[in-house]
Design a protein that fits this description.
heterodimer, A: 488 residues, globular, B: 498 residues, mainly alpha, two-stranded antiparallel ribbon, 2 strands
């Protein structure tokens, strides 16, 4: 596979955003262009699986940004997994968004679809970035192009939320992430993602490595490790398709993917393990997991509850990275996939409920399971996947995360993960339980039906995906393991 | 013949604008005056490009004015450092000439337009003169030419407050000019020469004298006034706010930058970094002041209600970055300084042009009155957003390159506190840029206002603005040529070569 293929993948959604803009006056054409763009992107990404699995690492350098620092794309298994997740879920979300945006008579739909395409372009750019500077460039691009999506409604509430969104993400990235990159550059003289890391021979001691790792992980605000998580609940003012694809998949996964990639290819698993650089984050991630789950229990707003659930689940992946073992990294990248399918389904369901009934609060959902059986069935499946029960994909990522924790003899982490599963049950299964088993209140209009097919079909597909991942997990694990090579 | 002509470029870049100036006055008609101004600035720009290319390939150019050999005659020296500054000044003037016609026609009555063009040429000649001269007294003369024309230009602003601002600037600028003259005079007294290279060889013998120390002090303070280095910045916000839009765009991008260049030249070439920074604690003073400038001026910018004034305060803060860079007294720091001299020129030039385009349409620069322009002026507003991102230092913009260069220089010198302050200042930039962007996009246009002023600015103004924005992005994506040039320049200056 030639490097030009990589450029094409990154540029394609961006270029097609122009076509989406040009088709702005004809909504059907516009959405058709969006969906087709997504499918072509997916096909392009799928074609790369074979060569990458065979050990190819295509790379292309466009130009040098700074002397010695190039604008480079390199594809390796971790990145391809992330790119595939984004490319698979984007067309589905576009399909869903068409139903949702029209069903709720949202304005500025052309701007919405353009920004969506640009955000995907940024996500693919992050996935394929060949060095830290290229990654940072797309990381910031993603923050900026999703800002109009968060503030889509343009009212006072979205303006305030937009401020928090940009405020936290830009503050962390400029204030912490950027200096971390500069320091790495000055220590190592390179920022290229390298097998085994680039910091091992720089003479950086354990304390320095720990501080640098902290700068990175807190600097990557998109990973939402507490206390850098405030932007995510704020972003929930956006239309639900945005929350579904961007704030459950593309944006937040870009964050944890960056953490994973930095752990594996900048620090290197051996170096990180030896110096204990990532060790504090075992506990910081654990605290985030527990706290976020507890907060989620008390959120009545459905989307906000899902947002806090996301914060907790993201820290699973941070935890996997922070283990700094092969098993940890594998479980982290597997969780990127399984959580993406689970959480997007939950958000799709939340959006479908909103489209059908304009209800946003958990306490309003009593007895609605009968009226919207497909939606709540999908919700249940996705919830079970996030809790980590077979036969859902989430079971595997939790399994490997637990065995990874046991592997480094951190048995307290097993307790954290078990407790978190229990909390997940409390806040997630509460919702279908209310819908199916409680009686609705009397002032419910009787004519509640399922949301439009454009909304229901995607959520059934992603729910099916949660189940399929249970059976397809091992190819993914083998694929990712091939990137990490031998070692701990 | 042609080679002979080319060899005269160092003097021609100064003389051509000076000689075009009376022609502009004679032309008198607005269009003819503008056409001359346009032709002159582009000719100067072309010569600047040629000089830059020549210095890059053949090394420094020494030019003896009138054939009088230095140190007795006046010498012009173009090395890899001031070639960059020359290119910036000439380039900004050229792009500004496209922008100026429509913009000035809105703000100044037609019968006085030719005076503005003439003064802009005088200012350009002065700034270029400061940049290319190798003679300390000659530098003072050109500084006064550029200053006097700036006072008049600012006074021509459309509001009556422009007169007061101009007067304020006149007082501060004259103090600055006089201090410079005193400093140069003291140095002359001790060495009997005014040629910079000659001064550099003779001054070390008298380094221990009070007079020599006083000379450096006077020169630094005088030039700091012109460069608006905190706390000598008080003239700047008013001057930038009330000057005509295209004048602000030009002066903001060049004038303070050239003053900083002159400061760098005196410190590094004439007195030498070891004297200024090791025997005297100039770097401590400059680092402290610029740290205050970065934070205090950024905070002040947040509370402004006028976009031009907001950007002006931001300029004061950005001068802090530039001065921080060379106060580190390292090659990396000096290179970062030069990078930001250029990049900040491009950023502020673009932003002031975008604001000028908005003012062309709305006849105001108050943030409240610009609300909702994102809808009626989509291209200009988008230009402001990209320029603002560059000011913040988001990747893929010139501002990011500056920040990267500056941060690595500061960290290499081990000044972690200053690195933190630089980052805090960029976060403050997020707030003040965000404030304007929110007004442009999230607040509805005043219904009464939108009736008579819907639509975009003239095409020429948009082209000029977007040309600078495109440069910002191009440098942000591919800064290697720029960093190579500034690295070479810094190396030449620190290495002691002129």
């Amino acid at each position: 596979m030639s490097g030009a293929w990589l450029i094409a993948l990154v540029a394609w959604p961006g270029v097609m955003s122009l076509a989406i803009g040009a088709a702005g006056r004809w909504p059907n054409l516009r959405e058709a262009v969006s969906v087709i763009t997504g499918l072509v992107l997916l096909a392009g990404a799928i074609l790369l699986i074979g060569p990458i699995a065979a050990g190819e690492r295509p790379s292309v350098t466009l130009f040098s940004i700074l002397p010695g620092l190039d604008f480079t794309f390199t594809l390796e298994p971790l990145g391809l997994v992330f790119a595939l997740v984004a490319a698979t879920l984007w067309p589905l979300t576009t399909f869903y968004a068409a139903g949702y945006m029209r069903g709720n008579r949202e304005g500025h739909q052309t701007r919405f679809f353009i920004c969506f395409a640009l955000a995907i372009s940024a996500a693919i750019g992050i996935a394929l970035a060949g060095n830290l500077l290229t990654l940072f460039l797309f990381y910031e691009m993603m923050t900026l192009v999703t800002y109009p999506l968060v503030t889509h409604h343009g009212d006072a509430e979205s303006r305030v939320s937009g401020r928090i969104y940009l405020g936290v993400l830009l503050t962390t990235s400029i204030g912490l992430f950027l200096p971390a990159i500069v320091i790495t550059w000055m220590l190592a003289g390179t920022l290229t993602f390298t097998h085994g890391g680039i910091l091992a021979n720089t003479g950086l001691g354990p304390k320095g490595a720990m501080a640098l790792y902290a700068l990175f992980v807190f600097g990557i605000g998109k990973a939402a490790v507490m206390p850098m998580h405030r932007w995510l609940p704020s972003a929930m003012v956006a239309p639900t398709p945005v929350s579904a694809l961007l704030h459950a998949v593309a944006v937040v996964k870009a964050g944890v993917f960056s953490v994973l990639k930095i752990t594996v290819y900048i620090f290197g698993l051996d170096y990180a393990f030896k110096t204990g650089a990532s060790e504090p984050f075992l506990w910081l991630a654990s605290i985030t997991i527990i706290l976020a789950s507890v907060i989620a229990i008390y959120c009545d707003n459905l989307k906000k509850r899902l947002a806090y659930s996301t914060i907790g689940q993201l820290s699973y992946i941070v935890l996997g990275s922070a283990l700094a073992t092969k098993l940890g990294a594998v479980s982290g990248s597997l969780h990127i996939v399984t959580h993406a399918f689970g959480k997007i389904t939950l958000f799709f369901c939340a959006g479908a409920i909103y489209t059908a009934t304009h209800r946003k609060y958990v306490s309003q959902l009593n007895g609605m399971g009968r009226a919207m059986p497909l939606t709540f069935a999908a919700f249940t499946i996705a919830a079970l996947s996030l809790i980590g029960l077979p036969p859902m994909g989430g079971a595997w990522s939790k399994w490997y995360l637990m065995s990874g924790s046991a592997g480094v003899e951190e048995y307290a982490l097993l307790g954290v993960l078990a407790l978190s599963s229990l909390l997940n049950i409390v806040y997630l299964l509460d919702i279908p339980a209310r819908a199916f088993f409680l009686r609705g209140d009397n002032n419910v209009p009787t004519a509640i039906r399922e949301a439009p097919a454009a909304c229901v079909v995607p959520l059934c597909l992603t729910a099916a995906g949660c189940i399929a991942l249970f059976f397809a997990a091992h190819p993914i694990i083998d694929f990712v393991s091939s990137a990490l090579g031998e070692g701990a | 013949m042609i080679a002979h002509f080319v060899s005269q470029f160092p003097i021609l870049v100064v003389v051509v604008p000076l000689l075009t100036m009376p022609l502009v006055v004679l032309a008198h008609r607005a269009f003819a005056a503008w056409a001359l101004y346009l032709a002159c600035t582009w000719a100067v720009f072309a010569m600047a490009c040629a000089l830059f290319a020549r210095v890059a390939t053949h090394g420094p150019i020494d030019y003896a004015v009138g054939g009088w050999a230095p140190p007795f005659g006046i010498e012009l020296v173009i090395d890899s450092f001031n070639a960059v500054v020359l290119l910036l000044v000439a380039g900004m003037a050229a792009i500004n000439s496209i922008y100026a016609r429509a913009s000035l026609a809105r703000e100044i009555e037609p019968e006085r337009l030719y005076l503005v063009y003439a003064l802009m040429l005088a200012c350009l000649a002065g700034l270029i003169g400061i940049t290319v001269t190798g003679d300390a007294f000659n530098l003072f003369v050109f500084l006064e030419i550029s200053s006097l024309s700036s006072y008049a230009l600012i006074a021509m602003g459309p509001k009556r407050r422009a007169l007061l601002s101009s007067f304020q600037y006149l007082i501060m600028g004259t103090v600055g000019g006089t201090f410079l003259l005193i400093g140069v005079g003291l140095a002359y007294m001790m060495t009997g020469t005014l040629n910079m290279a000659d001064l550099a060889t003779r001054l070390p013998a008298v380094f221990d004298t009070r007079t020599c120390q006083a000379a450096l002090a006077f020169i630094v303070v005088g030039l700091s006034l012109k460069a608006a280095l905190f706390p000598a910045h008080i003239w700047l916000p008013n001057a930038y706010t009330y000057a005509p839009s295209s004048v602000t765009a030009f002066i903001a991008a060049t004038s303070t930058k050239v003053a900083v260049y002159a400061l760098i030249r005196f410190v590094f070439t004439v007195f030498g970094a070891s004297y200024a920074f090791e025997q005297l604690p100039l770097n401590q003073v400059l680092l402290g002041l610029s740290a205050i400038a970065m934070i205090a001026a950024s905070l002040a910018a947040i509370f402004q209600t006028d976009v031009k004034r907001l950007l002006a305060w931001s300029s004061v803060a950005q001068m802090g970055y530039i001065v921080t860079g060379f106060a580190l007294a390292s090659t990396a720091g000096l290179s970062a300084s030069l990078v930001h001299i250029v990049n900040h020129g491009l950023i502020k030039g673009a932003l002031f042009m975008a604001v000028g385009a908005m003012a062309w349409r709305t006849r105001t620069t108050s943030i409240n009155d610009l609300a909702g322009l994102g809808r009626t002026m989509p291209f200009t507003s988008a230009a402001f957003v990209v320029g603002g991102l560059s000011l913040i230092g988001v990747p893929a913009t010139a501002g990011f390159i500056s920040k990267w260069a500056l941060l690595s220089a500061i960290l290499a010198a081990g000044h972690y506190l200053i690195a933190a302050l630089v980052l805090i200042a960029s976060l403050l930039a997020v707030i003040y840029v965000g404030k304007v962007v929110e007004a442009l996009y999230f607040r509805p246009r005043d219904a009464e206002a939108s009736n008579h002023d819907a639509g975009e600015a003239p095409l020429a103004m948009q082209i000029a603005t977007w040309a600078l924005i495109a440069l910002n992005v191009a440098i942000g994506l591919h800064a290697s040529p720029e960093l190579t040039a500034t690295g070479r320049a810094a190396h030449a200056l620190i290495g002691g070569g002129a």
